Amino acid sequence: MQVAKVCIVGCFAVSRSARIGLIVLALAIAVVGAGAVGMAFLPAAVTEPVVKPVTQSVELLTGDDKPETITVDFDEQPAVLGISNYPRIQLGAMRYTTDTSLIDRASELLKGKTFKRWYGYASYRAKANDMVGGCHSSIELDTANGAKLCDVSYDPGYEGNEGPGIYIMAGDAAYVMEGDQAELNDSMGQCIQDAYEQTCLPDPQTARDSGSARIWLFEDEMPWTVESGSTGSAKE
To answer: Where does residue 218 fall: left (phi above 0), alpha (psi -120 to 50 degrees), or beta otherwise?
Structure first.
């Protein structure tokens, strides 16, 4: 009888362990199933990866309708030449001349020149924004009433971050001048130097009041500004 009792107790113990295992397994299955059902009802934004791969560059996402090249052309005869330079001329303020020889020379160097689209401009500008200092110039041809016919910029770049040189902006797209830029760059540099000596030395106000002959003028000395009675820009 003692042996039979031990056998009954042993069989009961095995049966109880099996039931506990089955209960644990059932609970695990239930938890996994509930999680799967819950995920099915979550918004798509929650279940998608946090970081998505970028398949297009910034440059390609903007201005896709713009041409690959542009050619400088203007039907009306320019009557004014304007230049600017940072840092030499009052933080990039404009200076103007009506000297026909300078206007004709700038027209000759600009008209008919081809500029090719530069898709790396946005990346270059992002790097340049972290830099301190640098140099930037611009040259423009205007009508007698101040309407802009052509506007070209010059950015030599920073050390280790080469700039475009002479370029034109068309909205958010940049176009770099094809061919040799040296002749136009030299002409711009001479105009900037002359304007600096005539309107910035020894200081702008003294240069303005000196009464000496100047071919480079401040913006408020231009006809379109004088006629408007404004000391600011009246240009289009």
So the answer is: beta
Residue type, 220: D
What are the CA-CA distances from residue 71 to residues 68, 114, 162, 190 (Å)? 11, 4, 24, 24
Do the Cβ atoms of 107 and 78 come closer than 8 Å?
yes
Distance in angstroms (rounded) separating the CA atoms of residues 171 and 188 = 23
Tell me the C-alpha distance between 77 and 99, whole Å.
13
Q: What is the pLDDT of residues 63-90, one digit of tens each?
A: 458 899 999 999 899 999 999 999 999 8
Classify 144 as helix, strand or coil: coil
For 13-38, b/e burial (b = at least 16 CB within 10 A) is eeeeeeeeeeeeeeeeeeeeeeeeee
159-209 pLDDT, tens digit per residue, is 666 889 999 999 989 999 999 999 999 999 999 999 999 999 999 999 999
CA 27 to mean position of chain CA atoms: 58
Q: Alpha-carbon distance 78 to 90, whole Å?
A: 25
Q: What's the gap between Cα 6 and its chain centre?
A: 88
Report the predicted TM-score, pTM, of the whole model to 2 decimal places.
0.68
